[in-house]
Amino acid sequence: MKKVIEIVDEIDTAKVYAELSDANSGGICVFVGAVREFTNNEEVVALEFETYKAMALKEMEKIADAAMQKWSLNKVVMRHAVGEKGVEEPVVIVGASSAHRDACFEACRFLIDTLKETVPIWKKEKFKNKTVWVSAHP
Amino acid sequence: MNVLFFGITKDIVGSSEINFSNELKPVNVAELKKQLIKSYPEFSKLNSLAVAVNSEYADDDLPLNGNEEIAIIPPVSGG
Fold it and tell me: Residues B45-70: pLDDT tens digits?
C-alpha cells in the first residue's frame, strides 16, 4: 500500500494518475476540489487557505489509514493546497486505486468527506468588498 | 503556556501565537476553553471550538501541564 499525503502550494492535477496507477489496480478514482466563481450568488475573487500543517498531515494519514482498513486499496493520494487560489484553480485532490471500481469509488468519497470534517485547514472567501471565514459562524 | 491560533481565532486575538504564561494556568482543556472565552467573548459565537494538544484533538478532561503545544481549532473548512 502506497500513500501520498501532502500539503503543497500548488496542485499539479496531471501527476495523480502516475501516483495511483499500478499493475494490480483495475480502477482509479480521483476527486478534485476547485474554486467556484459564485457562493450564494456572490462573486468570489479568491479563496485563501491556511493550515496547522503538522496536525493536518497527521489527520490526513489517519483518514488514509482508515480508508485502507475499510476497503481493499492499492494506493491512496491526499493532497491539499494552501495560499491564495483563484477561480478554477484546484485546491484539493484525493484518490484511490483498487482491483475493482467499487472500492476506489467509495474510498474516494470517504477521503474527501472526512478531510472536510476533521483536517485543520481553514478557508477564507474573498469577495469584492468583504472576506468571510467559511463555516465559522452559525 | 503558549497557544497557537488559526483561521478566525487568529483574527479575533490578532496574533497567530500568544504566550499566556502569566495569565493562564488551566488544569485541563475544558478550563482552558473557559478562560479563553472569557478573554475573547467572540469565541463563544463560533460554530465550534476545539483544542489540539501536541497536534491531536483533545477531549475536555485532558490534563494540561503548560508544556504542551496547544492550538485552538475553529470550525475547519478545507476542501
Answer: 999 999 999 999 999 999 999 899 99
Domain that includes residue A61, residue range: 2-12+19-35+53-120
Nearest chain B residue to A125 by CA distance is: B77
Closest Cβ opposite residue B6 in set A118, A120, A134: A120
Asked, for residue A134, whether it belongs to a domain, the answer is: no
Mutate to test the interface with B, among A5, A35, A52 (most CBs of B within 10 A): A52
B3 CB neighbour count, 10 Å cutoff: 21
The CATH number given to whatever domain includes residue A106 is: 3.90.1170.40
CB B43 within 8 Å of CB B36 = yes
CB contact under 8 A, B6 and A50: yes
Domain B2-73, architecture per CATH = Roll (3.10)
